[in-house]
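Feature request disguised as a bug: please show the residue count (775) next to carnitine O-palmitoyltransferase in the output. Example input:
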Amino acid sequence: MAEAHQAVAFQFTVTPDGIDLRLSHEALKQIYLSGLHSWKKKFIRFKNGIITGVYPASPSSWLIVVVGVMSTMYAKIDPSLGIIAKINRTLDTTGCMSSQTKNVVSGVLFGTGLWVALIITMRYSLKVLLSYHGWMFAQHGKISRATRIWMGLVKIFSGRKPMLYSFQTSLPRLPVPAVKDTVDRYLESVKPLMKESDFKRMTVLAQDFAVSLGPKLQWYLKLKSWWATNYVPSVYIRRRVASPPDVLSADTCLPFQDLLYVMPTQIQAARAGNSIHAILLYRRRLDREEIKPILLLGSTVPLCSAQWERMFNTSRIPGEETDTIQHMRDSKHIVVFHKGRYFKVWLYYDGRLLKPREIEQQMQRILDDPSEPQPGEAKLAALTAGERVPWAKCRQAYFGHGKNKQSLDAVEKAAFFVTLDETEQGYRKEDPEASMDSYAKSLLHGRCFDRWFDKSLTFIVFKNGKIGEHSWADAPIVAHLWEYVLATDCFQLGYAEDGHCKGDPNPNIPYPTRLQWDIPEECQQVIETSLNSATILASDVDFHSFPFHTFGKGLIKKCRTSPDAFVQLALQLAHYKDMGKFCLTYEASMTRLFREGRTETVRSCSTESCNFVLAMHESGEGAFEQRLRLFKVASEKHQHLYRLAMTGSGIDRHLFCLYVVSKYLAVDSPFLKEVLSEPWRLSTSQTPQQQVELFDLERNPEYVCSGGGFGPVADDGYGVSYILVGENLISFHISSKFSSPETDSHRFGKHLTQAMTDIIRLFGFTAAAEENELF
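Example output, currently without the count:
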């Protein structure tokens, strides 16, 4: 019971002789260290706030400007054109300063004002420079003289050593495209997918919208863009959380897998110890803003970093109409789920982070705990996987007071959620296909009650030491964290020869605390209902995950084409092989060149891609040259569409926002209603690899991560995620639904493999010859 006595700093009893006071020196020490840790964090945040607030200048530049102003004053030169004299006369009215003091104060005030004016000028100049996106449309590998001059100016105004959020106020706002431009691009995107009669009808609807209702809705959207930092995020997030949190949706989750071939240790608690410690190191770097902002074009153009703010200490709170996001400035604990029990684990001891071996010790204590789940506890998290309204009502009725509120607060205010899974997962050589499919499905939804789907990050450790994560943040943000965690776990922390974390256990650390619940039968019935609906949905997912080894982006780049465009055209060809028709295709792009930018849609199925796919099914004289020519045309078109989406000229976010405005105004639009009801039967996304230097794949080729996938958006469609790992591997994740007689993930995977091979054969007499004609 030592840990129980450490929970209070003192105890006292009243006796006939007076008050008997007993102090716990260990508890007092922990309170002191905890307070010291909190004040350190506050100071670091305050310091970083000042540095970011004055960027692209620096706090030390204030002294330089003030000293410069004072020097000119003592040299009898007035740099202020009379402003300092006016300040001096104003101070004269106070009558409490000497002449010399007034001169110094006047100089300091003018110098400070000049410094602030310079900061504003530099910041605005940088924003204007970053509003230029012509460099993105230049020919690949060629940079014009004008672009080089522009890059030089950007670097001059960008200051030195930027922190994670330094560029936020200098990023331009996402522009609102013209209604006519968006409508024209929309019609161009659906033309190859519609019959001529349907396309004519849609053209009439679109053109009528562009000249009648569209301008009215656009005016409100423009108005919002003037006072909001970004006209999309608020409505986009509202849309995402107002509906049931489909645990399979591309919007609500993107699980990441472990290293494909490497197993650092097979001890579950040890892997948890190292990995959790690595996550906490990343969170500390994030709190201190030590993570460098992502820069494009030779470390010149910054991307928005806003999404990092809610990576940790964040939970989605259910509401009857719409959900809300609860974010804590700090959290000193995690919650761990194992065999239907919830444990609260403190992350600090003696004013410092727990070491990997100490975290392993805590995880092992949980694994060894023989206690049974309380009534309703084991499947409680199924509430977060079901319909939102029952969860919101249940939360309000049964979790608003007492021990249930305390335990739910512990979960929702935790830094992140951890599941010690009872199954063994991961790639197995003897059965690669089944093992990878099972691994992917486990990370996607588990058993629907062993993941807290409302947490921004759920970390999963399997029985055999494999790990994974489940998050509802955008892929590039989570991928950045995951790359750091895997690299830190393997290359920095490492393991002892016996497979345990390095270091020694610490028996003085208090045991994890079991969370207590009192869940009534009525709530247990809601839990069972939510679990049944989530299980039906999860069981319907047909998931196929496989590594494509035949070639990678290294060979694709020798074909002088974009690897992403290559894969997207292979997906179009595979879908046509699979279904015998074309479909509306979604590829996720990003708009993080703008402040608070998130994602945009690239409509990958274009007239040019359709022409290429049809040519691949034709034969005859000159067919080979025709296919190669059409491939290059389709590839260029795809890259152009991607660039338009990245630079704020996409189609779908604009149309969706116009639709939201029409709903607020209670105005019906047949055009928008039809556009928003069109199903995405092929939803795709590339997971970027951002920190290649962490793994050095040339030295460590086996240290590859296969990324993660998501569920299909349409009931009769496919969801495809892929990651280009190094130069020689592409990992694919394909999902569909068993309930659809038209789709089959494994069949699509075979068609995709064949499509990749068919396309690279087009270059077999050129670039592939350097590879000794792989086929």
